Structure formats: C-alpha cells, structure tokens
Amino acid sequence: FCIRLFAVIRYESVIHEFDPYFNYRTTRYMTKEGFYSFHDWFDEMAWYPLGRIIGGTIYPGLMVTSSLLYNTLRALHVTVDIRNICVFLAPLFSSLTTIATFLLTSEVMDTRAGLLAAGMIAIVPGYISRSVAGSYDNEGIAIFCMIFTFYLWVKSVKTGSVIWASACSLAYFYMVSSWGGYVFLINIIPIHVLILILTGRFSHRIYVAYSALYTLGTILSMQISFVGFLPVISSEHMGALGVFGICQLVAFYDFLKNKMLPETFNRFLRLVGLLFGLLFGVALSMLALS
C-alpha cells in the first residue's frame, strides 16, 4: 500500500491522466444523482460534440465500488471527499490483491508459497504502475477480482460445493462489471476443465463447480448493459459454452454407464453413434445440394 503513495506524498492528492479523470467525473455524478440517473446519463462533454451515453458504454464496477465506499463512510459519520476515495482506491485494492494471492497460492500449495507469492505481487512493477494513488482506472480493482475469482474457483473444484461455485459466480460478476479483461477468466477456467476431462480427472465436483459457475455467471454478466448478450453470441465466449456442453455429455455418459449393464450400455453407444452418423450424412447432403 505505502509504496503506491509516492505521488501523493511528493505532490498532492490528485487524479492522474485522462481516463482516470473521466472515471472520477462519472463517479462524482453517481454519488450526487444516484445509480439510475447515472445509468441513463447522456454526457454532452464526453466525445464532444457527439456526446456519450454513459450507462451503456462503460463498465460500472469501479464507480459503484467508490460510491458504496463513500456512502458507507458517510453513514458512519466519516467525512471524506469522493476525490480522495478515488485517489486511494487502487492502493487499497492492491492490498486486497496480496491477500487474495496468498489465499490462492496457499490453497494450491502451502502457506509458505502463499507468503512468497503475496510478497512478489505486491512489488511487481507492471501492477504498481496500474495501482498507484491517483490512477483511478479499471485495472485498479480488476486484478483483485481476477485473482479472487481464481481462488474461489479452486475452492469450488476441491469441495464440489454449490455455495463456493455461487460465490465464484458473484466474484466473476464483479470482474465483468469492472473490466473488459473478464474474457481471460471465462476462457482460462474452461481450458482448465477441458484439460481435466482429457486427462481423465473429470469428477462430479468439477461438474457441479463449472455448471454452477457458467450458468449463474453468464446470467449475471448479461445484466451489465455494456455486455448484454455477448456471452451467448460472441466468439470470445463460445469456448466456455462448448466446454459446458461437453461437461453435460461426459456427466450423462458416466451416469448411463453406472446405471446400465455393460452389454446394454455398449448397444446404446452403437445406436447413438449410428444416429449421429446418419445426422452428419444428412447435413452434408443438404450442404452439398445447397
């Protein structure tokens, strides 16, 4: 936290660069007018002279986070300017990122590795440059969201609990609302599941974790106006949908294998293979005729 306060200590508490200042303007508007007015706001000063519809063209997670902190502090009778919250938000979340990194690495390995990973991410130059005081941009909170989502995903896979998977979905929703880089999450996690399937390590725990995450996470992500129906029509999300379908097929295969006699199961597989072969042949014929 402290190593990110250099600019504030040497100069003053100010917002740096153009995008952070635009984010500050929108946050200030939200704190004064409320979320719904912010969502419907047409900003005539942005993209001049065309103007800009704010609610449908930005990821609102950064502004909502700052507004919630501001209103919470005011409810506790702590007087603070919204500008100072915006200035110090990124260093605050960088501290939370070190905790999330410790939890993730400790879950994968042990606490010693977790402490080492937390110490390393605290001083990574690339991350420091995006989380210094005054750099009020999406990456300031999005990196925490990403690592925390990975931690909850590991917990979901280990436990097979719908509760952990739902918590992972909420963290993913927070990530979607904060930064367009959420597509890294919705592609890395399906790749992990696909590798587990190909290596024969697929289990009921993984099925529950990924099915709950994909279903709930997709529904939640579609509530962000800037995202909309992209999770079901964009090529960036088709990999996750494909892995979701593969999970259902593999789970159905395991279910039938456990419920049927070996002879009946083999006969059923041959019948299904023949049916798919016929459908594939009909599809090729229709394509050739067209």
UniProtKB/TrEMBL annotation:
Catalytic activity: a di-trans,poly-cis-dolichyl diphosphooligosaccharide + L-asparaginyl-[protein] = N(4)-(oligosaccharide-(1->4)-N-acetyl-beta-D-glucosaminyl-(1->4)-N-acetyl-beta-D-glucosaminyl)-L-asparaginyl-[protein] + a di-trans,poly-cis-dolichyl diphosphate + H(+)
InterPro entries linked: Oligo_trans_STT3 (IPR003674), STT3_N (IPR048307)
Keyword Glycoprotein in annotation: yes
Top-level lineage group: Eukaryota
Domain Oligosaccharyl transferase STT3 N-terminal: 4-272
Single Gene Ontology MF annotation: metal ion binding
GO terms for biological process, alphabetical: post-translational protein modification; protein N-linked glycosylation via asparagine
Enzyme Commission number: 2.4.99.18
GO cellular component, one term: endoplasmic reticulum membrane
Subcellular location: Endoplasmic reticulum membrane
Keyword line: Endoplasmic reticulum, Glycoprotein, Glycosyltransferase, Magnesium, Manganese, Membrane, Metal-binding, Transferase, Transmembrane, Transmembrane helix
Required co-factors: Mg(2+); Mn(2+)
TM stretches of this protein: 53-73, 85-105, 111-128, 140-173, 179-200, 212-233, 239-256, 268-289
Membrane topology: Multi-pass membrane protein
Pathway assigned to this chain's UniProt record: Protein modification; protein glycosylation
Stated family: Belongs to the STT3 family.
Subunit structure: Component of the oligosaccharyltransferase (OST) complex. There are 2 OST complexes, OST-A and OST-B, which contain STT3A or STT3B as catalytic subunit, respectively. OST-A and OST-B contain common core subunits RPN1, RPN2, OST48, OST4, DAD1 and TMEM258, and OST-A contains DC2/OSTC and KRTCAP2/KCP2 specific accessory subunits. OST-A complex assembly occurs through the formation of 3 subcomplexes. Subcomplex 1 contains RPN1 and TMEM258, subcomplex 2 contains the OST-A-specific subunits STT3A, DC2/OSTC, and KCP2 as well as the core subunit OST4, and subcomplex 3 contains RPN2, DAD1, and OST48.
Protein name: Dolichyl-diphosphooligosaccharide--protein glycosyltransferase subunit STT3A
Source organism (scientific name): Clonorchis sinensis
Lineage: Eukaryota, Metazoa, Spiralia, Lophotrochozoa, Platyhelminthes
